[in-house]
Write a structure and sequence with these properties.
Rossmann fold, 32% helix, globular, binds guanosine-5'-diphosphate, seven-stranded mixed β-sheet, six-stranded mixed β-sheet, alpha/beta, GMP Synthetase, Chain A, domain 3, 18 strands, 13 helices, 3 domains
């Protein structure tokens, strides 16, 4: 999917415009940590064109001076985006900082769409012509707060999308390793390829910088591994912006059926691990928690179970994900990965017949009666699976407001107990029966 970045000096309203474009899909119902906070990456869609939106302003670059911040923001956008939205604001007029951003963007050969924000009424609209001076052609007047002009802006953005390249037919299971820097993703990629027979390797996408490698495992199963970690960008922006690795992770998640959320045994679990895992969960991908550098720990009888407990406590929302302890260095348990990836992929694609599903549902209700709210009792009529990848179930009830989170969780657990869904999130949607 094309990537669109919003760039501009502080206070022009980048986040507001970002939220407008990302729309409702931005309010995530999930309880995964880090999912709703600090959102800098969101899927969006306009007239059938899907794309990913990044708010480079959300990339925290620490205490760098103001100008450095703008510079690094622009660099990330120039490297990552297919289309850059250069946002300015009509309220403050053209500023020096706008001109500095413009100068940085001149250096890029990526298409730039100039937008003038805070055009909240007709009078202000006349002032947008001043922005021609920036040298990016026709400015598009918008109001993020009022949602004015967003359609025009989106039309202009999608016009610049690269021609869709026909993705070569590849029905192998696609997987990738994601994780913060230094957990050993590149080392694992190399170790996995060293252990298996590589068929072809190719660079996919124009700006995505992903290397796709097809290989055959010992049991003759075939995989496509997507590697965005290996091609690490140089430069200060990338080193400084910890959140930048989230962008890398998102690009990989986007194209994967299964992701190996990679942790570093030596350093333990960090906040950023949770954030990255949250994105994979939210995207509904198959997940295997892969603890690398297992060779570095001095082990006793408790080491493994202690680590496992720590993972379960820190990643409570990933209770469905299997855990594997590996070492890129000693190759420990790397041979188990192909089988695990296959299983998770199978579970992602599993379909349950409605009759069997409803038997499980009715049994569940019989053992744990539905809750009541204000004297009104939830009635559950029936359920049906409407999608795979991830398996998605619609439950028809008398009133969706009566479905408590904890009861939905109970139903999910009953479904998981009855059917093999390990490694895959499950989505449950509650609908009113018509
Ligand atoms: P990435 O940033 O996640 O791609 O991490 P790298 O693959 O570049 O690895 C970071 C560092 O950890 C390198 O110095 C590796 O040699 C080291 N490393 C990676 N995997 C292992 C492992 O399984 N055991 C040990 N002891 N070191 C490892």
């Amino acid at each position: 999917k094309p990537v669109v970045a919003i760039v501009g000096r502080p206070n022009v309203g980048k986040s507001t415009v970002f939220n407008r474009i990302a729309g409702e899909r931005i309010s995530i119902v999930d309880d995964a940590p880090g999912v709703t906070r600090d959102r800098i990456y969101a899927p969006a869609e306009w007239l059938g064109h899907e794309f990913n939106l990044i708010d480079t302003g959300g990339i925290d670059i620490g205490d760098e001076p103001f100008l450095e911040q703008i510079k690094e923001q622009a660099e990330v956008a120039i490297d990552e985006a297919d289309v850059i939205v250069f946002l300015t604001s009509v309220r403050e007029g053209l500023t020096d900082a706008d001109e500095k951003v413009a100068r940085l963007l001149y250096r890029s050969d990526k298409p730039v769409v100039l937008a003038v924000n805070k055009v909240d009424n007709q009078e202000l609209r006349q002032d947008i012509y001043d922005y021609y001076a920036l040298g990016f052609g026709d400015p598009v007047g918008v109001s993020g707060v009022h949602g004015i002009g967003m359609g025009d802006l989106l039309d202009e953005i999608v016009k610049h999308f690269p021609e869709e390249i026909d993705e070569v037919d590849d029905d192998r299971i696609h997987f990738s390793l994601i994780g913060r820097p230094n957990v050993g993703k590149s080392s694992l990629v190399n170790a996995i390829l060293g252990e298996n027979r590589v068929i072809v390797s190719s660079i996919a996408g124009t700006t995505r910088d992903a290397v796709d490698t097809q290989f055959i495992a010992a049991d003759d199963s075939e995989f496509t591994m997507i590697d965005t970690a290996g091609l690490r960008k140089r430069g200060k922006a990338y080193e400084n912006a910890e959140k930048y690795s989230v962008l890398r992770a998102m690009a990989a998640i986007d194209r994967s059926d299964v992701v190996l959320v990679t942790l570093n045994a030596e350093e333990g679990i960090r906040e950023q691990d949770k954030r990255i895992a949250g994105y994979a969960h939210e995207a509904g991908r198959g997940i295997i928690i892969t603890v690398n550098k297992w060779d570095t720990l001095k082990k006793d009888n408790h080491t493994l179970s202690d680590f496992e407990n720590a993972i379960r406590a820190n990643f409570a929302y990933l209770d469905y994900a299997p855990i594997v302890f590996v070492s890129a260095k000693t190759k420990q348990r790397l041979d188990q990965l192909p089988k695990m990836i296959q299983e998770v992929s199978k579970n992602q694609n599993r379909r349950i017949k409605s009759s069997v599903l409803n038997d499980v549902l009715m049994d569940a209700i019989a053992t744990n009666p539905t809750p009541s709210t204000n004297g009104k009792k939830l009635r559950v009529y029936y359920a049906t699976q409407v999608a795979i990848k991830p398996p998605t179930f619609v439950i028809f009830v008398n009133d969706p407001d009566l479905m408590h989170f904890s009861y939905e969780r109970f139903i999910e657990n009953q479904i998981r107990a009855a059917f093999e869904f390990s490694g895959t999130p499950i989505h449950i949607i509650t609908r009113r029966r018509k």
